[in-house]
Amino acid sequence: MKVSRTNALDEITMAVSFAEAAGDISLIYGDAGLGKTFSLKEYVRSHPDTVYVELKDCDKSTKGVCEKILACIGKEQQGLDRLLVDSIIEFLRNSPRLIIIDEAQHLSLRALENIRAINDATETGVVLCGNPTVYDRMHGRGQAHFAQLYSRIGIRRHIMEPSLEDVASIFEAYDLDKESVLYLHKLALQRGGIRNCVKVLNIALQLRASEKEPLNIEHLQAAYRLRNGEQ
After folding, report:
1. What is the DSSP string of 133-185?
2. Cβ-contact 16, 26 below 8 angstroms
3. Which one of 38, 40, 46, 163 has the largest count of C-beta atoms within 10 Å of its C-beta?
């Protein structure tokens, strides 16, 4: 899919660029399907030295996230948390580079504190990105043990629902009429956001009689029904 400028992409690129330039921590959060991971991966494509890790729930510990970071930089290692953290610090002092942690809502408090410690020791930029849970946990609702962690965040960006202009820009390459763009925007405001739109559009492309047939709202509506088991 063609990469288009959207509010989300611009917001995320700004936050990531700030973290890298300032050696600070950026926090990016928003609901699923708004293009956060897509935007981060676009940044990594143009900045291949970036350390990008995408977490699962099983990676929430210091050991889990550090092992993924070390694997990404080609220094696969296991052992005590302290040794893993020290290995990352040593590497970054010799070879500074940005760290992006996607799905950061999975991180435990101890893991978050060790990520902060890595940032403190190396002044390496760190981006934490996830769903709104990551903001709630970092904010800590005023709890004292979160105060130092929260105060270390340089920039916080809340990624919001896509605008009609965003949707038109994302799907510009498909030469859709206004009715189809409005329909996709309606889908983008539902659960799944832009991700849902992309899946519907990919199905719709298969429903056309030929590649020469223009994509229209009937194709999109039929694709939506197929995706949701309505036909």
Report:
1. HHHHHHHGGG-HHHHHHHHTEEEEEE--PPPHHHHHHHTGGGT--HHHHHHHH
2. yes
3. 40
CA dihedral 111, 116, 119, 121 (to 10 degrees): -100
Burial class (CB in 10 A: 0-12, 13-18, 19+), 29: buried
Task: Find the helix or strand (DSSP H, E) in which 128 lies.
Answer: strand 126-130
Number of C-beta neighbours around residue 97 at 10 A:
17
Structure tokens at 187: 């889908």
Report helix, strand or coil for 51.
strand
| Beta-carbon contacts of residue 185 (< 8 Å; ≥ 6 apart) | 162, 163, 164, 167, 168
- Mind listing the pLDDT tens digit of every residue in the chain (231 residues)? 444 557 778 889 999 999 999 999 999 998 887 788 888 998 999 999 999 999 999 999 999 999 999 999 999 888 899 999 999 999 999 999 999 999 999 999 899 999 999 999 999 999 999 988 888 777 665 555 666 677 778 888 988 888 888 888 888 888 899 999 999 999 988 877 888 888 999 999 999 878 788 899 999 999 999 988 765
Q: 59: closest CA among 130, 126, 124, 118?
A: 130
CA distance 159 to 143: 25
Angle at Cα 123 formed by Cα 121 and Cα 124, nearest 5°? 110
Report yes or no on whether pTM surpasses 0.70. Answer: yes
Provide the token pair at 77: 């290692």
